[in-house]
Write a structure and sequence with these properties.
This protein is an alpha/beta fold. The chain has helices at about 25-35, 60-70, 85-100, 115, 120-135, 155-160, 175-190, 200-210, 220-235, 235-255, 260-275, 290-305, and strands at about 10, 45, 75-80, 105, 135-140, 165-170, 195, 210-215. Strands 2-3-4-5-6-7 form a 6-stranded parallel β-sheet. Strands 1-8 form a two-stranded parallel sheet. Helix 7 (about 175-190) links the parallel strand 6 and strand 7. Helix 11 (about 260-275) packs across helix 12. The longest helix is centred in the C-terminal third of the chain and has 19 residues, at about 235-255. The protein is globular and about 55 Å long. About 50% of the residues are buried.
């Protein structure tokens, strides 16, 4: 079904940690093997917000990328998130990812833009700098329109002219803009994929115009999300709605009617551990462990939704 590059389902992966906060490399290998075995998964994206990129040191980001490339790089594309405050640092992270086997990077905006904003020249120039300095394929990480880091359509139209920009992870979260932006971008650059990252609006965005999905939820329940995306994109609304009905209670358990966030990713990691599909619910500092009553509530909600918790998971 996904015969064009950078389309399909690309899970944003969680990162497992040992009790001493080191990366659980064995657990990570098992996890990505599981994801890569699911039909419709075309790539894996590490070092995103779901993967706690903010708490990982640069050498750890490279190591996570290396493990994934080594384990499943022969099956799926490997994308590494790049989160840096300046062009030189971003180029360095991109080169490190490239050296250990990444096929592309997910380039996040510098986070000081969230506070101070930036000019259009600076925003587009950031992508030009990294494309020229690292010579690796780039997925644009579009932030919500309400932030000072979100890109306008005019800016994205300039970005898709950059040779190394191959896809946009569209996180505008403004549904009145979605179809308009999608159609204008596809008209300008038909070979640049537009993929939804809006877990909470996934079915809507797929129906309005998308070439796939890059979502954390695909790293949680990959079979459900892969089935949902494929059904929606082939126009099978009956199947898509049936799968959406199974996803809905899980979405409420994780997102609590909000957007993806560190708290949501913590609940996702907790839920996946309770289901026996992830080695540990441990999060990196400064995030503190969920209180026992919250873990018990998540377990009860999973059972109520028809997803049995493994025996001993609450011990």
């Amino acid at each position: 079904m996904f015969d064009k590059p950078w389309t399909g389902i690309l899970p944003a992966t969680l990162c497992p940690f040992n009790d001493d906060d080191s990366i659980d490399e064995i657990g990570l290998r098992d996890y990505v093997q599981y994801l890569a075995s699911v039909d419709g998964i075309t790539g894996l994206v590490c070092n995103g917000h779901t993967g706690e990129v903010m708490s990982l040191r640069n050498h750890e980001r490279a190591r996570v990328t290396e493990i994934m490339a080594d384990e499943v790089g022969h099956k799926v594309k490997i994308v590494s998130g790049v989160c840096a405050e300046g062009s030189d640092e971003a180029i360095g992270q991109a080169l490190a990812a490239k050296d250990v086997g990444a096929d592309a990077i997910l380039l996040m905006p510098p986070h000081h833009w969230l506070r101070f904003g930036r000019s259009s020249e600076t925003a587009v120039g950031f992508f030009q700098d990294v494309a020229e300095g690292a010579d690796i394929d780039i997925i644009v990480h579009q932030y919500p329109a309400w932030t000072k880091a979100g890109y306008s359509l005019a800016e994205m139209l300039e970005m898709v002219e950059i040779d190394r920009v191959v896809s946009i992870k569209m996180g505008t979260r403004d549904m009145s803009r979605w179809a308009f932006d999608y159609r204008n971008l596809k008209r300008a650059a038909p070979d640049v994929s537009i993929i939804s990252c809006q877990d909470e609006y996934l079915l809507v965005t797929l129906l309005d115009g998308a070439d796939g999905a890059l979502v954390g939820f695909a790293g949680f329940v990959p079979e459900l999300i892969s089935g949902l995306v494929q059904a929606a994109l082939r126009g099978d609304l009956e199947e898509a709605n049936a799968l959406q009905n199974k996803v809905r209670p899980l979405s409420q358990i994780v997102y609590r009617f909000g957007e993806p966030s560190s708290d949501a990713h913590q609940r996702m990691k907790c839920a996946m551990t309770l289901l026996g599909k992830f080695p540990s619910m441990r999060m990196r500092r400064p995030i503190r462990p969920l209180p026992p009553e919250e873990v018990e509530r998540i377990a009860a909600e999973l059972v109520a939704a028809g997803f049995p918790v493994v025996e001993g998971a609450l011990a």
